[in-house]
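A student in our group prepared the protein record below, which I am reviewing. Here is the record exactly as it was handed to me.
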Amino acid sequence: MTAVLEVRGLVKNYGATPVLRGVDLAVEEHRVVALIGSSGSGKSTLLRCVDLLEEIDDGQVFLDGVDVSDPRADVAAAQRRMGIVFQAFNLFPHMTVLQNVTLAPRVVHGVAAAEADERARELLRRVGLEAFAEAHPDRLSGGQQQRVAIARALAVRPRLLLLDEITSALDPELVGEVLAIVRELAAGGMTILMATHEMGFAKQVADTVCFLDGGRVLESGPPARVLGDPVHERTRRFLTHLVEAGRLT
């Protein structure tokens, strides 16, 4: 089976500083891959390179078997097949919730306004925010804004959903409502690559967990093994630190 996403030997440097040092990973259709690791390990940079928001220095990114990192590739066309949600909500404050969700389908994908509106309202119902369709983002809590951002990413019907630490900017009591949406998407078969610090969630929802350290995938495999019985000493130290901090049980 051809993976929806395949990354081969991905290298990214910021000036003289190496950030990704030859990353290999694959995300099969209807699977969830969780990226874990310390801050600065390269998780967010990897997601940005996959979405072609960053130029890569070496390696390849394949989407459904097509090398979208090839200099001759149509970057915009590849990006239209992916949805990405960042740590910050990045909603347009001068637009209503509905306008935020319909913008990309209308402007980027050329979807008719009525169709985009219908799809957006369906997604807002799905994330429990239909009543806020005409509200502006400043009327919403952080958790609600992040749920709108997820709806916005889904509005383009992405082949691959990228989630970059989407709960890290939220108060603890709001984390659950956002993760519940991701859990539902995973159960529905969405193909997801996500960076997360929520180890319990990764253990329950992910099909594969990849531990990044120093810009490399040091260890990957089923959550029960990587999080419960890791092979590498560096992975064990990382998880031990989380247990001591009360973030992994």
About this structure: Strands lie at 5-14, 17-27, 32-36, 58-63, 66-67, 82-85, 160-164, 192-195, 208-213, 216-221. The mean pLDDT is 94. Residues 1-81+160-169+185-249 form a domain with the Rossmann fold fold (CATH 3.40.50.300). The chain has two domains: 1-81+160-169+185-249, 90-158.
